[in-house]
Amino acid sequence: MEISDSPMAIGGKMSGRFWATYWTAVAGGLAGAAALAWWYAPTEATMGVVQKIFYLHLPVAINTLLACGVVFVASLGYLWRRRLWWDDLASAAGKVAVLGASLVLATGMMWGHVAWGVWWTWSPRLTFSLVLWLLYVVYLVTRASVEGAQRRALVAAVYGVLAFLDVPLVYLSAKLMPDIHPASITLAGPMQLTLAAWGVVVTAALAGLMAARFELAQRQRKREKAGDEGAEEEVKLQGVAV
Amino acid sequence: MSAAGWVIAAYVLGAAVILGYAGKIWVGARRLDRVQAQRRTRT
Fold it and tell me: What does the alpha-carbon distance between residue A169 and residue A189 come to, in Å, rounded to a whole number?
């Protein structure tokens, strides 16, 4: 059979075309959402133009907490079923959680620099957010440092369940404790529509990243299962492990 | 930098991080295709 006719090769090509189209649409969506924020949404009266960072900051923050939730559920799934499918899902979600938390911290610091006059302050919301970022960075470092698929999955699953304990603290901190970070913001109609557009695009982007990373991990896993010994090592050498 | 400059910087950073990681995964998947094709050719 010709290589190009094999189901795997056809699947890879289809997957490649799908994701190329998907990410082109996401890029267009991000540009459209930025245009809405810039030209359609009115400038907020108290904070001024810098409030427009909020349209990116909030959806990324919500999706980051959701990604942490996926790590939690997938970790429980692995502990219950001991199937590596759950571990691949937890790993993909953990990477998206770190990426999202990094973006939340960076955009929050830019906002704080202009709105509060400081890059950082040890308020409860900011502190618990930094702890969240550290917890999930350590999650990825832990995964990379444990040898053996099942052992790695077990250690990561226990850690993934425990790390989730910080998520309610991040969410509730600004609501229950005095905090410089706003607990809620009242938005005018055009602002709500702009935020909704950003919410759709950012959710599609981060869910897409999780799905694409999970799909890649599954393909690598299938190759190993098919008796392709040394495939993972070869793939890592060629820079496929992301 | 002005407030507007920071907004643009945040948007560019957000798009770069998201699309950059998407690109990294995409390239990884295409490399996996190539590795698979090479191994099938050898066998």
Answer: 30
The answer to whether the CB atoms of A240 and B28 lie below 8 A apart is yes
- Is the CB of residue A102 less than 8 Å from the CB of residue B17? yes
Nearest to A6 among B9, B29, B40 (CB): B40
Judged by DSSP in three states, A48 sits in: strand
The predicted complex's ipTM stands at 0.89
**Neighboring chain B residues of A49 at a CB cutoff of 8 Å:** 2-4, 7
What is the C-alpha to C-alpha distance for residues A74 and A87, in angstroms, rounded to an integer? 7
Strand partners, A48: A44
pTM: 0.86
Query: B25: distance to nearest CA of chain A, Å?
Result: 6
Phi, psi angles (nearest 5°) of residue A229: -55, 140
Beta carbon pairs, A and B, within 8 Å? 126
**Do residues A231 and B40 lie in contact, with contact meaning Cβ atoms separated by under 8 Å?**
no
**End-to-end CA, chain A:** 31
* Minimum CA–CA partner of A34 in chain B: B11
Q: Which residues contact A63 (CB under 8 A, 6 or more apart)?
A: A96, A100, A202, A203, A206, A207
pLDDT averaged over every residue in chain A: 86
Per-residue pLDDT tens over the stretch A108-137: 999 999 988 899 989 889 999 999 999 999
B11 in contact with A, Cβ within 8 Å: yes
Are B7 and A219 in contact (CB < 8 Å)?
Answer: no
Cα A237 to its chain centre, rounded Å, is 25
Q: Which residue of B has its CA nearest to A110?
A: B6
Report helix, strand or coil for A186.
coil
